[in-house]
């Protein structure tokens, strides 16, 4: 019998402990256009960044899946949303074409993170293991809650929801592409 058969399909590709780095995204989303705001081309934008104050200083953003560049004419806040005015978006009809699109900034303009902070794109796709070497799966989604994020891990036992807490996530190793975790009692 081949050694390959003894390993699950996911484990076969794990390699020597280092992984091919996933390409970094060129852009990070800071908002999503909800709808036009008024008749002069302004846009109501749901804020997706944890640093909303940085929106006030943006000069250029990239909109949609093709990252179309727009100069920012103005930004102001209304309740929990941002009202965005883009140069070239002068009427409600043009604004309507941008409904649902992501508003992005280049990765190099992203707010620098503190030690032990990570962007979502760095966590997604990481393999999840216990200190004993048990492979639990891969992070496929991050759910944002009021108190802490929850990592959705898809693995051989199905879906596992892990709270992103210090006593659960022991180590984030981006070079090796893994999260070292302790599964709390009752989550399996």
Descriptive tags:
188 residues, mainly beta, Elongation Factor Tu (Ef-tu), domain 3, SH3 type barrels, 2 domains, 6-stranded antiparallel beta barrel, 6-stranded mixed β-sheet, 4 helices, 12 strands, disordered N terminus
CATH superfamily of the largest domain: RimM
Measured distance between first and last alpha carbons? 32 Å
CATH architecture of the largest domain: Beta Barrel
Structural domain tally: 2
Alpha plus pi helix count: 4
In short:
The protein has about 190 residues and is mostly beta strands.
Give a verbal description of the structure.
With 188 residues, the protein is mostly beta strands. It folds into 2 domains: 27-106, Beta Barrel (Elongation Factor Tu (Ef-tu), domain 3); 118-181, SH3 type barrels. Helix content is 9%, strand content 41%. The strands form 2 sheets. A 6-stranded antiparallel β-barrel has the order 1-2-5-4-3-6. Strands 10-9-8-7-12-11 form a 6-stranded mixed β-sheet, with no helix packed on it. It is elongated. Residues 1-18 have low confidence and may be disordered.
Explain the layout of strands and helices.
Elements: H1 3-6, H2 9-12, E1 27-37, E2 42-47, E3 60-63, E4 68-78, E5 81-86, H3 92-96, E6 102-106, H4 120-123, E7 127-129, E8 135-144, E9 149-155, E10 158-163, E11 169-173, E12 178-181
Parallel strand pairs: 7-12
Antiparallel strand pairs: 1-2, 1-6, 2-5, 3-4, 3-6, 4-5, 7-8, 8-9, 9-10, 11-12
């Amino acid at each position: 019998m081949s050694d390959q058969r003894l390993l699950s399909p996911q484990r076969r590709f794990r390699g020597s402990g280092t992984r091919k780095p996933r390409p970094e995204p060129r852009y990070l989303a800071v908002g999503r256009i909800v709808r036009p705001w008024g008749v002069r081309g302004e846009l109501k934008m749901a804020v997706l960044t944890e640093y909303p104050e940085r929106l006030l200083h943006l000069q250029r953003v990239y909109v949609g899946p093709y990252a179309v560049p727009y100069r920012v004419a103005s930004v102001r806040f209304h309740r929990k949303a941002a009202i965005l005015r883009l140069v070239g978006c002068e009427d409600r009809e043009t604004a309507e074409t941008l409904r649902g699109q992501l508003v992005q900034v280049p990765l190099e303009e992203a707010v620098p993170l503190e030690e032990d902070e990570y962007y979502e794109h760095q966590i997604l796709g990481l393999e999840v293991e216990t200190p004993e070497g048990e492979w639990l799966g891969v992070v496929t989604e991050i759910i944002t809650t009021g108190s802490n994020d929850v990592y959705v891990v898809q693995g051989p036992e199905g879906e596992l929801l892990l709270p992103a807490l210090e006593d659960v996530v022991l180590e984030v190793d981006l070079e090796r592409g893994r999260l070292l975790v302790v599964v709390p009692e009752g989550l399996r």
